[in-house]
Design brief:
29% of the residues lie in helices and 21% in strands. The protein has 146 residues and is of the alpha+beta class.
Length: 146
């Protein structure tokens, strides 16, 4: 697998300025890239030298008509609801802010995600969910021999 390149400082700076200054917005890296979340849902982020935004269906359709916009496909498969903003839009603070604000408004309509705490289950590479210790093993370990 080809390594992803780091986002340029210029793109990160434009992204940072365009993200709404709202107490509902949190920022944290997603796969090492700058990202913005509301209620646990990512609504915008950087990826390599691009900015992506999560949009409602009508906004996605509108943006995809703009030259240079494209579905976000980081691993060859589209990520539902995400669109790569045209590179020409990145230096245009007003346009960039407007699209990221649309993403923020859309994310506010989504169900909040709860913070994940230490989970008792892990998913294996084969996709099976396994308990750290099976209930049967725990029960056998507690049996008394009379």
């Amino acid at each position: 697998m080809k390594a992803w390149k780091k986002t340029s400082a210029e793109v990160v700076a434009a992204f940072d300025k365009a993200v709404p200054a709202s107490p509902s917005v949190t920022r944290r890296p997603m796969f090492g890239y700058a990202s913005a979340f509301v209620n646990g849902n990512m609504f915008a982020g950087t990826f390599q030298d691009a900015i992506v935004v999560r949009l409602a269906e009508t906004d996605r359709a509108t943006l995809l008509k703009v030259k240079g916009a494209a579905p976000f496909e980081p691993m060859g498969h589209p990520m539902k609801e995400y669109v790569v903003l045209p590179a020409s839009m990145v230096p245009k603070a007003k346009d960039l802010s407007a699209w990221i604000a649309r993403g923020h408004r859309y994310a506010l309509t989504l169900p909040a995600k709860s913070a994940k705490k230490g989970t008792a289950h892990k998913t294996t590479a084969a996709g099976r969910t396994t308990a750290k210790k099976s209930v049967a093993k725990q029960a056998r370990g507690r049996r008394r021999i009379d």
